[in-house]
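Board notes (copied after class):
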Amino acid sequence: VGGSVVILDPASGELLAICSAPNYDPNRYGNYSDAAWKLTAITDQFEPGSTFKPAMLSAMFDAGYKAPEDMVFCELGVWNVMGETIRDTKKYGDLSARQALVYSSNIGMAKMAKGWDKRVMHDYAQRFGFGRKTGIELVGEISGTLKHPKDWMPFSQLTFSYGHEIAVTPLQMCAMYATIANDGIYVSPRIIRDIFHNDKPIYYDAGAERRRVMTEETSALMRDILAEAVEKGTGVNAGVDKVQICGKTGTAHVVQASGGYAADRYISSFGGFFPKDEPRITIFVMIKEPTGGYFGGAVAAPCFQRIAQRIIDLEGANYFQPDQPEQAIDHTFAAMPNLVGLAKEDGMRLLRTNGHDFRLYGDGEIIISQEPAPGSRIPQDDYIYLTTDLRHTGRDSILSVPTVVDLPVRNAVNLLAERQFKVEIEGNGTVVRQQPKAGDHVPAGETIKLFCKAAI
């Protein structure tokens, strides 16, 4: 038995938790198999099975190929097609497209996919991030396996619709569910939010990728369907009191190294998020070769439920209720005032008057630097970082020099210009040295010399 759990903030892509089993004690790693040293949530791939169905159904809706109430006959649980047999766990007859997901009909998904453009199916899978690394700042991540449509067999198009002939990581799956939760916008997962040096924030580009995968309308529709899957479909064991859960179960055979599927070895999974409106948490659970049962609804869904309930208990159920209109966060943009050179109390008063939150660093009485730079247009609810010094010399505003070493010279110039510095460049390519050095305090408008070297 093994498995992984991944928890993401769907809006920011921040990795809130990640774990894999079996685990090990790093202080006594020699006592464990090297297989336990891996973070399998990013290093191992598996066929997702039915937890992949929301990606394909959302693609059908978003591309205008299917509508939620379109009907499909599910062959009473057995469909012989192309010399193969597709089965459902129950003898379903006519189901709507949304019901095919709620009740997890393989036949329903396959019949809807039959005849569709396989290039569109592949394109949406790529949009969701499958077939490539997420780029998270962890060592050992793999890209999974997403075959090009030219390499598909005729039957592949059918099985792909319900999560076969594709291999994924738990992190990729969690990011897919986070995309549905986040109004259809994919945000690449990350573990670093900010970098501080001597208690001061410094420039950091998290490299987070944000792209639209589907329309907001498709995303809202999928949240409704996934909520129904938990309320009365295969995911009922994932439900909790007071907070509406959205999610989908999955059960798949283990793929053998020699090819084909192991008849009596399974992977159980559940992906979901909550609350349905304004989701804050996305969780993906994958359990490999469980004992005493193997269906995702019986094994992985209760695991999801226990994790979700624990998070809700820690935060309080009210945290997961939709904001009331009078409490809604103001996301309007405002121009950043110039606070450099002001007395600390005056700068803080100005920010409070304009409804800005801020963080203050240093024990001085004069503001010597600010982030973002004056004139920047920022969301009203963004933090503003202020740095103070103990003494003020009475000359021009004093600023802290940011670090630009290892940045491409163009990025370095843009950053320094934003901080009101002049720039002198020697060489080209990447910055290898700067003068004055990072952290020095110099007057605004000071010239920073960059020593650059081109890559060989």
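Comment from the instructor: Residues 398-453 form a domain with the Trypsin Inhibitor V; Chain A fold (CATH 3.30.10.20). Residues 216-232 form the longest helix (17 residues).
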